[in-house]
Amino acid sequence: MFTIMPTLTITQLKRAIKIKTKLEALQSQLDGLLGISPSTGKAPRRKVSAAGRARMAAAQQARWTKKGRKGKRTMSAAGRARIAAAARARWKAAKAAGKNRL
Questions:
Q1: CA–CA separation, 72 and 74 (whole Å)
Q2: Cβ 43 vs Cβ 36: under 8 Å
Q3: Whole domain around residue 33: which residue ranges?
Q4: Quick one: how far is CA 29 from the chain centroid?
Q5: CA 99, 101, 102 angle in degrees (round to 5)?
Q6: Which of 31, 48, 59, 85 could form a disulfide with 36 if both were Cys (CB 3.0 to 4.6 A apart)?
Q7: 31 CB contacts (<8 Å, ≥6 apart)?
Q8: Mean pLDDT score of the chain
Q9: 25-71 pLDDT, tens digit each
Q10: 101 in a structural domain
């Protein structure tokens, strides 16, 4: 931690230990005030009850409903036939040009 440790006298070392002890005590008091658990240094996790989760799920569902979901898009048979015909024409032109990939 410090590079000057070997040059300190015993009195100075004892004083440093006292200061360090006071700092640790103050830090633990501060952690207690802020709600930080001493073992991990993180604030404890808040738990949500099952009823709270149900309320959140209902609220999210209401938001999605309000926004309005659109149904699955379907293609008409005529539209699908046009796309298939265009693909066949592209392949026919590619094969005529001697290509085996587009």
A1: 6
A2: yes
A3: 9-37
A4: 31
A5: 95
A6: 31
A7: 37, 38, 41
A8: 85
A9: 998 888 888 877 666 666 677 889 999 999 999 999 999 888 876 66
A10: no
